[in-house]
Amino acid sequence: MGGRPPKPHARHSTGKKVQGLKQRLVARALEEGFSKARVTRPQAVPEIAGRLAEFVEAGRHGQMRWMAQRTGWRGDPSALWPEARSVLMLAETYTPGHDPLAVLGQRDRGAISVYAQNRDYHDIVKKRLKRVGRWLLEQAPGEAIKVFVDTAPVMEKPLAQAAGLGWQGKHTNLVARDLGSWFFLGAIFTTVELEPDAAEAGHCGSCRACLDVCPTRAFAAPFQLDARLCISYLTIEHAGPVDEDLRGGLGNRIYGCDDCLAVCPWNKFAAKAREQRYAARNDLLAPPLAELARLDDAGFRALCSGSPVKRIGRDRFVRNVAYAIGNSGDRGLAQAVRGLAGDDDVAVADAARWALAKLAP
Ligand code: B12
Ligand code: SF4
Ligand code: SF4
Q: With contact defined as beta carbons under 8 Å apart, do 265 and 239 qualify?
């Protein structure tokens, strides 16, 4: 979107008219299905370039090499698109209707992160953002927009805090007093001048529940995640075999991890998910590991069609399943990985052999 070159002078630059447009824009975003929408400026978070540099220099991004690229844009949203005057940050709730930690006690089942138990938010949020953006362009002809969700070189969390959507909790994700922590972020950058909202302050206080629950001790300090140790990174982003000393911490988590989000006390105030397409699919809620270990490419694609899980492909998924089987302590599951020990994928074969050794009498 936003292919048209932005005008040098935004039409809606000051005054009452902007205020009216902003209120109608926020109302339009809520009508579209977002739970909250607030405005900030692209220059609102000058501290993020330094924080990103520290993160990357310490190697905390692991194999996510793209985080060390385009740091000029990632660390400075105003460099990404110099004509942008305002950023509308949006929250999309996906609050689970079940206890997301319950499956962790079922060792013969796989735990898939709440956000991935049904439709892929990237598709849903992007479409919503485009519809809201199109509406804005109808109100402000000649202006331009760009929409982002997750994958662009934009640090969405600090921008969302600057807009006042919530604050970055000690687990680094955004938490809000009225939404809890189960929400995705989306962004609409625009050349339209919109009055910025006030930033939100932190409300973690002395709580450290998220830091203490982390199974792999992935926090270097409060507010600082070493992604290389995070189960979400290890199960989704990390290619090849996972370090042996980290495999035990994965437990039965086979895609992502929700522990630090789930224990946040602000979830007492979690807003309900407005989108039914995030509600857990029965077959992704607590799937039997023995069945998942049998998946070939076609079976994997059929099971994970439409879910974000499909992005990691069969090999990484089955690798994770084999680690979970190794961690199950259930010797009856050894049979399910035996055939994988000779798998064409090196990481799958290695994980299967590791699981068999763990389950050996
Ligand atoms: C890379 C990435 C990951 C990586 C790294 C996560 C991370 N914390 O950096 C991995 C794969 C591990 C990951 C995991 C998850 N992710 Co992710 N991820 C991203 C992505 C693409 C970029 C994040 C980023 O820029 N990280 C780089 C670091 C440098 O930035 P930072 O996280 O803001 O951390 C800095 C601050 O903490 C700051 N800092 C330091 N000291 C202090 C002190 C104070 C007081 C403050 C305020 C800040 C601060 O400096 C840090 C650097 O050390 C964003 C989407 C996007 N484009 O923004 C989604 C995103 C952050 N992920 C998201 C989600 C949902 C998850 C998971 C919950 C998924 C899951 N269930 O498995 C987990 C949560 C793990 C966790 N505790 O963070 C959502 C979060 C929504 C929200 N409410 O905040 C996002 C925004 C995607 C989206 N569009 O909705 N993710
Ligand atoms: S997602 Fe899981 S592994 Fe990653 S920081 Fe949170 S609790 Fe730790
Ligand atoms: S669990 Fe506690 S420390 Fe962590 S984000 Fe929530 S309030 Fe902050």
A: no
Catalytic residue among 150, 315, 330, 345: 150
Express each pLDDT in 260-282 by its tens digit: 999 999 999 999 999 999 999 99
The answer as to whether 5 is a domain residue is no
Distance from residue 156's CA to the centre of ligand 1 (Å):
8
Mean pLDDT of the chain: 94
Could you read off the pLDDT of 145-195 as tens digits, one per residue?
999 999 999 999 999 999 999 999 999 999 999 999 999 999 999 999 999
Residue range 217-235: mean pLDDT, rounded: 98
Query: How many domains, in total, are found in the chain?
Result: 2
Query: Is residue 150 annotated as a catalytic residue, yes or no?
Result: yes
Residues 151 and 296 in one domain: no
What's the whole-model pTM score? Answer: 0.95
Q: Is 148 in the pocket of ligand 1 (CB under 6 A)?
A: no
237 lines ligand 1 (CB under 6 A): yes
Tell me which residue range forms the domain holding 20. 16-96+118-190
